[in-house]
Amino acid sequence: MRVALCTEHARCTVTRSSVMKTERIMQEDDKAPGGAAVKPEPATPKKVAKKKPQAATGEISSLKTIEELVAHYNEMVLTAVDFGLAVHVAESFPDVKIGQAACEQLHGQIIKARKRNDDMAAKKTKKTKKTRTKKTSSGVKRPRAKLNEAEKIQWIGPKENPCRKGSGKAERVAKIMSSSGKTVGTFVKNGGRVGSLVYCIKKKWIKVG
Question: Distances in Å between the alpha carbon of 180 and those of 36, 64, 106, 171, 194?
């Protein structure tokens, strides 16, 4: 059977979804014996099993005697001490449930301590990488300035030494001033530095050529 939408009356508010639902029910009625309506069974939501803690589903839950629990607990104590936890060896437990609870609690503390140590190690590694990067970037050796030894030095700066009197820079600049008219090679042979010449060139105190 089909149900047609009403197009003549403006008051009809039949929606497409309701029509499709009616058609489906009628088709099921035609197939049902005796004309009895067969209603679809509502879908039952699937139950999602809750995940139990790792400690409860592992070795701890399989330990059924106090002796086994004490042995397992004391093994975990060694691991806990390595992670800096202040725990002591157990001699016995009042019953199995208390022993299992104690093992699960210590197991959880070990997991947290391991995660904390891993995070600290990761931060330390990251910090070390940053430090190495900074050292590498700041420790790059700049190529030394090269000047032709045959070129002559010409002082074009102020008549008096522009550097502070008595400083090492003033001494180096004074040597350059006295070397005006000489070659770069002669200046270097007399103990001068090429870097000092480059500095004076940048300050526009000398010309080399």
Answer: 120, 98, 82, 15, 14
For the record, the structure tokens of 13 come out as: 């508010």
Q: Where are the alpha helices (DSSP H) in the chain?
A: 16-31, 54-57, 59-62, 66-82, 96-138, 168-178, 184-189, 194-202
Residue pointed to by tokens 């800096």 = 84
Q: Report residue 114: phi and psi, to 5°.
A: -65, -40
Closest CA to 208 of 173, 167, 169, 176: 176
CA–CA dist 10, 4 (Å, integer): 15
Listed residue (18, 37, 19, 16) closest to 28, CA to CA = 37
SS3 category, 104: helix
pLDDT band at 177 (very low <50, low <70, confident <90, very high): very high
Q: 152: which DSSP letter?
A: B
What the block records as the tokens of 184 is: 């770069």
Report the C-alpha gap between 134 and 34 in whole angstroms. 87
Could you tell me the two tokens for 104?
A: 């699960």
The answer to whether 77 and 69 are in contact (CB under 8 A) is no
pLDDT in tens, 66-106: 888 888 888 888 888 888 888 888 888 999 888 889 999 98
Say how far apart CA 157 and CA 186 lie, in whole Å: 20
Instruction: List the structure tokens of 151.
Output: 């070129």
Residue 147 near residue 175, CB atoms below 8 Å: no
Amino acid at position 145, single letter: A
